[in-house]
Amino acid sequence: MADRDPLPLVPTEGDDPALVARLTALYAATPLPPEGQAEQCARAVLARAMHQPVRAADGVPRIRWWWGAAAAAILVIGVGVRGISGRQPTVTTDAAPAGAALTGTVTPTPAGAAF
Amino acid sequence: MTDAELIARTRAGDSDAFGALVTRYYPVCWRFAVHMLGDRTDAEDVLQEAFLRAYLAIGRYDERDQFRGWLFRIVTNQCRNALTSRGRRVRRFINDEDAIGQAPAPLSELFGDVDHAALSHALSQLDATQREAVLLKYAEGLEYTEMTALTGAGESALKMRVKRGIDRLRSLLEPPRG
């Protein structure tokens, strides 16, 4: 039985030197981006990045320094306005003061009374 | 200054260093995005998004990879996203004559050379995955292993896309018979 060529499971890319040369020439002839567009892109990216959470190398969001500064400022202002001690706590109790005499009368509830 | 130095300075918070990386890689990314999308405005938007993502993720960039390849992976993904959302828009507005009239000029009109214009037009007719594979292989000159890392597709699938893309380009560029 004659050997037959195996079916090509992985096709070879359709090399067409002339077409490939045309593609390369087309790519090389692509107009460059307008002057200053790259710099404009960089500026836009950096401006947008200010409003995005930045992640550190381990992927954990990095806390920007001004978040800490803002929190500290709020704390300082809050303490300045109210004082460190703030208001004195008030203590209430239901217990009668020691030594107070109990007054009043005790009325027994009649049997069978409806509440 | 090398890419590694600029990346290290960017990570340390030097925004000028990232600006230098953008300036260095913008033209190559632009060329790819323009041919992938066939539209300069879309390419500009896609590149801004891609560079933003690169900036935000630069802490996770592994120095063992080539920066260009890493960046190209982001650009390729953004081009795919843009093509997907454009597909949705086209399906929604396909009957809107005004929208069609105001559409930007096709990329082929940018080329004075008739041959370039015809090839650019034929390229825009390819399926997006075939166009991506053909551009990465023959315009960017990548090896299949690099293309696999970049696109996430298997090597045999990429070879198939390149072959079909080239076949289709050839048939599109053939002069009409008769």
How is this structure best described in words?
The complex is a heterodimer of chains A (115) and B (178). With 115 residues, chain A is an all-alpha fold. Chain A has helices at 17-28, 37-49, 65-82. The radius of gyration of chain A is 42 Å and the shape is elongated. Chain B has helices at 3-11, 15-37, 40-56, 67-93, 97-102, 114-125, 128-139, 144-151, 155-173. The N and C termini of chain B lie far apart (59 Å). The mean pLDDT of chain B is 86.
Please mark out the parts of chain A with pLDDT under 50 across 5 or more consecutive residues, or reply none: 5-11
The poorly predicted ranges of chain B are none
| Share of helix of chain B, binned | over 70%
What's the main sheet of chain B like? none
* Shape verdict of chain B: globular
Specify Rg of chain A, calculated over alpha carbons.
Answer: 42 Å
For the terminal residues of chain A, how far apart are their CA atoms? Answer: 110 Å
The proportion of residues in beta strands of chain A is: under 5%
Largest interface: A-B, 41 and 47 residues
Overall mean pLDDT of chain A: 72
Our measurement of the CA-to-CA distance between the termini of chain B, rounded to an integer number of angstroms, reads: 59 Å
Describe the largest sheet of chain A: none
Structural class from helices and strands of chain B? mainly alpha
Number of helices of chain B: 9
SS strand fraction of chain B: under 5%
Described by the principal axes of the CA atoms, the overall outline of chain A is elongated
- Total count of helical runs of at least 4 residues of chain A: 3
Oligomeric state of this protein? heterodimer
